[in-house]
Structures are given as structure tokens and as C-alpha cells.
Amino acid sequence: MPEDSDWEAYKVPPTRTPVSERTTSVPNPVTFLQTVFNYVVDAPVTFVREWIERQQAKNKYYYYHQKFRRVPDLSECLEGDYLCYFEAEAQWRRDRMVDQEIVEIVRERLGACKQREGPNQFQNCAKEMELLAQVTKAYQDKYGDLGVHGNARTCLMKQKHRMMEERKAQANASQ
Questions:
Q1: Which pLDDT belongs to residue 105?
Q2: What is this structure's pTM?
Q3: Is 106 in contact with 131 (CB distance < 8 Å)?
Q4: How far apart are CA 159 and CA 2, in angstroms?
Q5: Domain ranges across the chain
Q6: Which parts of the sequence are annotated with region: Disordered (predicted)?
Q7: What local confidence, expressed as pLDDT, does residue 1 receive?
Q8: Residues 143, 121, 139, CA angle at the centre, nearest 5°?
Q9: How many CB atoms within 10 Å of residue 128?
């Protein structure tokens, strides 16, 4: 390979970048404004935010662990106490959602057991089947035949009618 003797064509870059020299003695207004902004606006806001974060870190709040206080049942509300009616309805809806999730969890456990056991599912998953039967019967007794638009009042009336039927059946059986 022939040696290239033309060093001017391939100049070596300088080893250090030269520092620009200030040509004036007037301070840069941008750096002055940045400094004023940092001290006047940014520092107080940062201080307040860090203080709030420290306070929140002391008592953590997990929204998914929210615990509602139990409110009186609809049967315990006074006549015309609409706030009590509203709270009882909200409590009933929460209870219904919890009961739906319980049924779903038991159903998923039974499905997992059936998948795991295969052909032996009838003897090895008997406890889960019995538990699912009990849970669905309890759910059906309480919320069955209410439909999508069921509410606390209709559920209470359903339970009242069921109790009256049970008392009639017990009275007829004892005679």
C-alpha cells in the first residue's frame, strides 16, 4: 500500500475543543432569569411537594383496601329517612358484589381442581363441588330472581316472604 504523503487532505482533529472567550463584561440575562426562576418559583414548589410526599409516606393509603363502615340495614331505617335508605342500598350493592366475587372464586378453584385432577376429579374435588353447591345455593336464596334491577327493598321483601313460607311449612309439619 502506498503511503499517502498529503497530510493536508486528512487533517487530524484538534485534541481539545477551545473554550469560547467572553467578549463582554455584561452578565448573560438568560442565566440571571434561570437563577431567579429557580429561587422564586421552583424552590418553593419543590419544597412543598417534598413535604406533602413525606406526609403521605407516613400514612400510606391503599385504595384497594378501603373499608366501609357497616350501615344499618334497610329494615332498621326510620320511615322517611332517605339518607338511611341510600346508605342501606349502597351497602347492599357492595355486599352483592362481594358475594358475586366469592361465588366466582369458588368456581375458579373448582375449575382449577378439575383441570389438575383430570379423570379423578369426582373423588378428589368433592370438597370443592360441595362448597360451590353451598355457596351458589346461599347466593341464589338471597339474590335469585331479583334480576338486574334488583335493589335492597326487593331483596328484603324476598327474604321476608321466604321466612314466612318457612314458618308456614314448620307450622304445618308440627300439626
A1: 97
A2: 0.58
A3: yes
A4: 104
A5: 27-63, 82-173
A6: 1-23
A7: 47
A8: 5
A9: 19
